[in-house]
Amino acid sequence: MKFLAVDTSGDRLIAVAKNGERREVFDELCPMRHSVRLMEAVDGVLKGAGLALGECDFLACVVGPGSFTGIRIGISAVKGMCFAKDIPALSLTSFDCLAYADGEADTIAAVDAGHGFVYAEGKGLPRGYYPISEVLSRQEGGTSILVGAPIEGLGGKTVSLSKGLCRAAEALAERKTSAAELAAVYLRKSSAEEGR
Asked: Which domains, from first to last, does the chain contain?
C-alpha cells in the first residue's frame, strides 16, 4: 500500500508517506504556518519514501475536528493533489488518529478546543464539543483518555499522532472516495461566527 497522509488540524503539521516503510515530517510548533510549510513537508516525505505523488494508491487528510483554518488548508491541498493526479482521497478524523495510535478498546479520544473545552469521542461519549469537566466525569475505571498533546485540566495518555495517522490510513483505506467528497468535520461554530 502506497499513500500520503497529512494532518494540519492542530498546532502541529504531520505528513506521512508509506511505500513499504513510513517516512514522516512532524513539525510540533506550526500554528498559523500550515500554508507555508505543508507542500515542503509533502515533498520531503515523498522523496524520503522514494515515491512520486502519482504512484500513491490514495491521499489521506485529517478533516477535523480541530483548527478551522488548518483543516481547510489540508483539505484544499489534498483535493488539489488528488484532482491533479486522479487519485482517490481518504477522509480521517482526529479521533481516528488518536484511536489507532493507541489500539486500546476502552478509550475516549480528546482534542483541545480551547477555553476549557475539548472535542471528544469514545466509550459512552458521542462525538461532540464538551467542557473538560464532562469528559472527566465519563472516565470510568479502565477508560483512558487519549490526547495528541497535553490538554490543561484534562491530563490523559499522550499518543503518537504520526503513528496514529499512518495506522488509521492503513486500516481505513477501504473508505477512500473521490476527492470531491472530502469535507470538514466541525463540531461547533468558528470563533468568528460565535462573535457575530
From this structure: 2-93+161-189 (3.30.420.40), 95-158 (no CATH)
Provide the whole-model pTM. 0.94
Q: Is the peptide bond before 150 cis (omega within 30 degrees of 0)?
A: no
74-124 residue pLDDT tens: 999 999 999 999 999 999 999 999 999 998 878 999 999 999 999 999 988
